[in-house]
Amino acid sequence: MSSVQKPNANEVVSTPLCYEMNGSCPRTLYSFGVQLAIYMACVVGMLLTVLGNLMVVIAVSHFKTLHTPTNFLLLSLALADLLLGVTVLPFSTIRSVESCWYFGDDFCKLHTFLDTVFCLTSIFHLCFISIDRHYAICNPLLYTTKFTTRVACVYIVIGWGVPMVYTFVFLYTNVLEKNLGHFLQDMPCIGQCQLLFNRLWGWLNFPLFFIPCLIMITLYVKIFIVANRQARQISNMNASTGFGLHAGASKRERKAAKTLGIAVGIYLLCWLPFTIDTMVDCLLDFITPPVLFDVLIWFAYFNSACNPLIYVFSYRWFRKAVKILLTRNIFGSGTSTVDLYQD
């Protein structure tokens, strides 16, 4: 029989920890090559997010021809994604690679606040853009009177204000702790800063995601049906008269609706896995491994880099604006009045 060697009493088998203290979270160690790969992927994602959305902000702000209610919503959406890339993603990158939070509890709460506000602001704006496109396609004659710049500004205030108030009440007041304390769960260990630190957080975020998504899906289904009907009517009228007639919403409006429909679809694709995992995790007592959680949250973050890429491939005006920006012609006189919609 082979003998089993017992460990020496003086030997201590230690698990890597975030902090050398009792109650510290265990740390996942990666090889240098894996760490470098993760850092590079995260940095590329941050650069795409920041630079792409910065171009949208500059383009809509600078060119007067783009000063429309829809584009003001796009500007506000891009600003939320830009701020996410500047203020949230750098610290999320370090947390993902090091598998620990080294910036303290107060900054963890601020980081969670900003993360939640910017992400909820994005979905609120996409929902409002869906309403805008619904009016433009389904009620083209009333659109200019119903959806004005003032209405867009009201939507923008709501889109920023509601997420800020909701997140502030949840994170910085004890209202929920007093009334719903039995739902709350403290951080399981020291050195962790995750969005999921209690069941109530997951249960509240779940409807905040799905209700706007349900509204967007419903509106875009109706938009798709109406746009196809209008296209058939135009085709039949042109075939019968022999002239190119215009009816219903313009081709530009239908193109914008299609593009923003793609943006909504990609948003759902990016955020659905994380949101479902959030709800399941709350029901199953937080069983998601930290590595899987990081993958899902970064997949959701990636959505903030997608919208500018969608605009590049879909909007001629955005490609022309980017070209002017990259060639530094934006500093020339009179560029703010250039008609980017002209072929």
UniProtKB/TrEMBL annotation:
It is found in: Cell membrane. Pfam families: 7tm_1 (PF00001). SUPFAM superfamilies: Family A G protein-coupled receptor-like. The chain crosses the membrane at residues 36-60, 72-92, 112-131, 152-172, 206-227, 259-276, 296-318. Its main location: membrane. Residues 38-315 form the G-protein coupled receptors family 2 profile domain. The keyword Iron does not apply. It is a multi-pass membrane protein. One of its GO terms (cellular component) is plasma membrane. Signal peptide: none annotated. This is Trace amine associated receptor 5. The gene is TAAR5.
